[in-house]
Specification:
2 helices; 5-stranded mixed beta sheet
Length: 322
């Protein structure tokens, strides 16, 4: 090989070596530089335990991130909540690695004020991680939708049964007040007496209350008859309360009350005066009316008899002959 050719080959080898060196140096320089990118394809699947938030409370939400791809390292998770939702604690979590088909579970506390009731909010979760064999970081974003609802808690107070001691065949009335301790109205509230021993239910044993607003007492009264064949003793009566919340979920609870069945006490014998007054009120007017009629009839007969008698004239003396 001639000298010019050998020199040309050496120059080409030197150029090739320089290019390779530059590539290696560039790779080493970019090794610790974060280069993020995101696209429609995501490696992680996101699942949450609950996306319905109750206003006025710290809601526990569990976020599960499952790696459906290859092993990843140096994982960073960031959560962003829109106002007025508030996160209790930090919104960043780190994991050294998440293996293939493994999961990372994050538990958070989210507070929603009452002003957020009835609204929806979208939170974002951003994952940043490094894959094996890559010198740059990969980033992907997930969205979480939250719905804020109100809270209804119904209680009953002032429960009374009137009369507390009832005789068989009589009516008893159960009265109470409902109070909504929540932050939204309870809808379609109705109350009903449940079937119970010694009670006979009728149309007044059920009542529709309607809407019960927060912190607004709603009184109600129900009635039932005591079984005529009920025995003496104490009995429990139960009132069922039904209502719906702002998610149209039906709730119910029961209120217990107690009453006593007693037999009617024997009445004392009436006194002579009471017997006379009772006789006079019940039957005396008949005899009194008859007596008055008889007296009036006798007076009329006497008057007629007197009118029929002849009148006696004056007898004059006749002169006597001498």
């Amino acid at each position: 090989m001639s000298k010019p050719k050998r020199e040309g080959l050496m120059r080409n080898e030197i150029k090739t070596s320089i290019v390779i060196a530059l590539i290696v140096l560039t790779a080493c320089w970019y090794k610790d530089v974060e280069v993020t990118h995101s696209g429609p394809v995501t490696q992680f699947a996101l699942d949450i335990s609950e996306n319905h938030l109750t206003a006025g409370f710290n809601n526990t939400v569990k976020i599960e991130l499952t790696n459906n791809g290859e092993n990843v390292y140096d994982v960073d998770v960031a959560l962003t909540l829109p106002p007025p939702l508030t996160l209790s604690g930090d919104n960043h979590w780190r994991a050294p690695s998440i293996k293939k088909n493994s999961s990372l579970t994050i538990e958070i506390l989210v507070y929603a004020p009452t002003s957020a009731i009835g609204n929806t909010f979208t939170a974002s979760v951003v994952l940043t991680y490094k894959e094996l064999g890559y010198v740059y970081y990969t980033s992907e974003m997930h969205s979480i939708g939250f719905v804020v609802h109100g809270w209804v808690k119904m209680v009953a107070y002032g429960v009374t049964v009137s009369p507390e001691k009832a005789e068989p065949g009589t009516d008893v009335t159960i009265s109470a007040n409902l109070l909504n301790q929540g932050n939204v109205a309870a809808m379609y509230v109705n109350v009903s007496l449940l079937p119970a021993e010694a009670l006979v239910l009728h149309e007044q044993s059920t009542s529709y209350v309607g809407q019960v607003d927060p912190n607004s007492p709603a009184p109600f009264s129900l009635a039932a008859s005591v079984d005529p064949n009920a025995r003496n003793g104490s009995y429990i009566v139960r009132v069922a309360v039904f209502y719906q919340d702002d998610r149209h979920l039906v709730h119910t609870f029961t209120v217990n009350a107690q009453f006593e069945v007693v037999q009617p006490s024997p009445k004392p014998p009436p006194s002579t005066r009471m017997q006379f007054e009772e006789w006079l009120w019940r039957d005396g007017w008949i005899y009194l009316s008859g007596t008055v009629i008889v007296i009036l009839a006798a007076i009329l007969l006497i008057r007629r008899a007197r009118r029929k008698q002849p009148q006696l004239g004056v007898i004059k003396e006749l002169p006597t002959k001498t």
